[in-house]
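Re-run requested by the PI after the first attempt was lost when the workstation crashed. Everything re-entered from the original request form. Ligand of interest: glycinamide ribonucleotide.
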Amino acid sequence: MKRIGVLISGRGSNLGALIAAQKDAPYKIVLVISNIEGAYGLTRASEAGIATKVISHKGKSREAFDGELDMALRAAGVEIVCLAGFMRILSDGFARAWEGKLVNIHPSLLPAYKGTQVHERVIAARENQSGASVHFVVPELDAGPVIAQATVPVHADDSPDALAARVLAVEHKLYPEALRLLCDGKVTLQKGLAVFS
Ligand code: GAR
């Protein structure tokens, strides 16, 4: 049973999916940290009986903020960290310290559409397909090796919100599946590559 820490900044629907899946999964979420006070994901965690913590990034250097995250995660005995709508860029030091044990979900088919405003850019480029990716986190933003992806169609008349909702629905299945692979040791990060066994 792997001990999971989840970092969030907002509504935490992916956190909700990870919580819902944990009853028959090889993991247990032991701590949820938000950098934003009042994030709805904190309520989801509390309702599920999971410890929560708010660590604000305001007025701190990236390294100082990440140091506080690291300390809280280690104090809770966390073994794997999941970013779930966590809208802060982590320092290289944090990414290296948790290498192979730090994963993120991103609402595009990486390596396409890294960064923000993903759905707006996908629609503007008239793509007919988009999706979501769970990937290992490396120092370079959204550049880590992909563990799992799911695709959705993009419709000609899509709004960014409509596309975001379609992508989010597949995220909720994808993240628990990818985390299960990682917890079971079926995917590992080796020399910068995701290796499946
Ligand atoms: C999700 O769509 C996730 O992929 C995205 O934020 C949303 C969070 O939703 N993450 C990123 O864009 C990371 N760069 P949630 O708070 O309901 O899980």
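Saved to the shared folder this time. The radius of gyration is 16 Å.
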